[in-house]
Design a protein that fits this description.
7-stranded mixed β-sheet; globular; 13 strands
Length: 434
């Protein structure tokens, strides 16, 4: 069968040849974003094919010891950390998997992740004998576009390589093409106000005609409605708590340059806390039993045009922050393009619904079917508080509300979970880097 690639680039290595078979989900080829990356990926592809076929990996493919690294590597000393002999190697799970497949010695690899962690890009570079990449944000190659943007550009006869994209990672979007063809007017920024020097907000679009009559729901809307009706049979209770976010916000400011979003940080904090409270990660079984889940899979609600979906970060407690942030961006993009597989949105064991970015102070969430808990997160707002010594201070606080299935979860369970989550976010944010 034909396999469509949703990314552009240079074909560096074919892992599954014509006429061969492969397991569902297995890689069939490697694409390089830049032409100069092709040799490194070719070397990695050879090692990967050898591991998949069961053949021994050539010893020559192993990287040279760190002591023999070229002098230019010193230029990245401020952002990379090499492991000394006998020291524990700190690496993401995916990086360890790639290293095992390619026969790369992780002790000889310099990490560019948070705290010097070895990430997948470092292993791929080491397999090809290249210097570790600088920990900069990813930028799509020239001509990269969303599927709809590419289709509209082809219809209009536009060369994508000459266009500047405004989408994620610099991709050309449908709006970019419509603006380039004159079918849509760009939103012009107003001149800075004379008093404060800040640009005025863009005007809101004029409301369209008021819809009338009966409009059938699409498949997604019907599924959401059906799931919401199922929750009426579940006895629930809710518990709320204020959490001070000053230290959490400071950590976000430090890691956002590595592609880590607030959503990824929240998922990690919740997952770590859930590991101590498996009852909140469990679900009620109609047979009169409790179904405990071996994995902590955090689902997060994403609003779409005409619907709602919950992409899932599997094993969120075990993933490092950089990998978690990258995976969340991938899932959101696939959700917006309606390319999520059922396994990517139906396997959640705990759900987070965050409306804080809309300025919502607090709200209650409806419990999803098949789960025991859902956490609703409001916005983090500056709040005047009274300290223990009686003095006043301004701190940023947010309200979180957990909704639980009362058939197997009790009020004390929810209260203790929120207490530990608050302690982690207020006093122990460094644990999110582990």
């Amino acid at each position: 069968m034909d396999v469509e690639s949703f990314e552009g680039g240079f074909l560096a290595s074919i892992l599954t040849g014509e006429g061969q078979t492969a397991n569902v989900g297995a890689p069939v080829a490697l694409l390089a974003a830049k032409k100069e990356d092709v040799p490194a990926l070719q070397a990695y592809g050879q090692a990967l094919k050898a591991s998949l076929s069961g053949a021994p990996t050539p010893v020559a493919a192993a990287p040279a010891p760190a002591a023999a690294a070229p002098a230019p590597a010193a230029a990245t000393a401020a952002t990379t950390v090499a492991t000394t002999p006998g020291e524990r190697v700190v690496a993401s799970g995916y990086a360890k998997k790639l290293a095992s497949e390619a026969g790369v010695d992780l002790t000889a690899v310099s990490g560019t992740g948070l705290g010097g962690r070895v990430v997948s890009a470092n292993v791929i570079a080491a397999a090809g004998g290249k210097a570790a990449p600088k920990p900069l944000g990813y930028q799509s190659p020239a001509g990269a576009a969303t599927p709809l943007g590419r289709k509209l550009a082809e219809e209009a006869g536009l060369d994508l390589k000459t266009m500047k994209g405004t989408g994620e990672f610099g991709r050309v979007t449908a709006d970019d093409v419509l603006i380039a063809t004159g079918k849509k007017s760009p939103i012009k920024k107003k001149a800075a106000a004379a008093a404060g020097g800040k640009p005025a907000k863009a005007p809101k679009p004029a409301p369209g005609p008021m819809p009338t009559g009966i409009k059938p729901m699409d498949g997604m809307m019907k599924a959401v409605a059906k799931n919401m009706e199922k929750t009426l049979d579940v006895p629930i209770f809710r518990v709320s708590r204020l959490i001070t976010t000053d230290k959490f916000d400071k950590l976000y400011a430090e890691v956002k340059g590595q592609g880590v979003s607030v959503s990824a940080l929240l998922a990690k904090a919740v997952a770590i806390t859930l590991a101590r409270y498996p009852i909140l990660n469990a679900a009620y079984d109609p047979s009169g039993a409790i179904k405990y889940n071996a994995d902590i899979n955090v689902a997060m609600a994403v609003a779409l045009d005409g619907g709602l979906i919950t992409p899932t970060l599997k094993n969120a407690d075990k993933m490092d922050l950089v990998s978690l942030g990258a995976k969340w961006r991938e899932l959101v993009k696939k959700a917006q393009e309606k390319r999520l597989t059922p396994d990517e949105y139906t396997t959640g064991t705990f759900t987070i619904s965050n409306l804080g970015m809309y300025g919502v102070s607090a709200f209650d969430a409806i419990l999803p079917p098949g789960q025991g808990s859902i956490l609703a997160i409001g916005g983090s707002l500056p709040t005047v508080v009274v300290r223990k010594d009686g003095s006043f201070a301004v701190q940023k606080q947010m309200t979180v509300t957990i909704t639980c299935d009362h058939r197997h979860i009790y009020g004390a369970d929810a209260a203790e979970f929120l207490r530990d989550l608050a302690e982690l976010m207020e006093e122990d944010v460094e644990s999110l880097l582990d």
